[in-house]
Predict the 3D structure of the following.
Amino acid sequence: MARLEDKVALITGAASGIGRASALLFAEEGAAVLVADVNIEAGSDVVAEVEAMGARAMFVATDVAEPAAAEAAVSQCIAAFGGLDIVYNNAGGATQDDGKVSEIPLQEFWRTMGVDLYGSFLACRFAIPHLIERGGGAILNTTSIRAMKATQGADAYTAAKGGVLTLTKALAQELAEHKIRVNAVAPGVVASERVRSMMGDVSKNPLAQATPLGHGMPMDVARAALFLVSDETRWITGVILPVDGGAAAV
């Protein structure tokens, strides 16, 4: 039996990178997938890839930092697939405008907080009542190795992901009575399309070079995500799992 047989998963930021890899992997394991992203063309392409596998998928254009859009993604997922079992808050990421507190443009700080932290909050807020009604489920958030280990140069991103980390632990306690598990992955340097566009040769990035196993690939994180949302982890909640090639151990 597939690991996500008859499950319905909503994945934000699913048009590329880790989100795309997760959408394809979850579908391969039996899930119906709601692809939520701002990139209509790329998101639609992911849906086509999933459907070509013989699985069910739907795209919803979603700005995760907008309450109405986040609520619509949840409601359209339930309308299309008849329920919701898994919420994977993957959308987010730093930009080249991020940096030190003394240098970050204020609008960049709030953009990052909006997508990375507020976006995760909103998806949880609108999904939780449905997960409770369903009798349980899994929420997976995306924090970062930067939230677990002091680094320099992306202070807005670090602050936002730190918020996601503690929100994950708080929700794990709050929702346990409803049989809703809440965990997070904390990726290190991953050679996604977005990261390569910012860094160029990811292997030459100082953070990647300081990582014992070097940089990772989107599917490395997707496999960890699959584990945490599957029934194999029915007794695991409140965990922050580094998927970082050993960076947290250095």
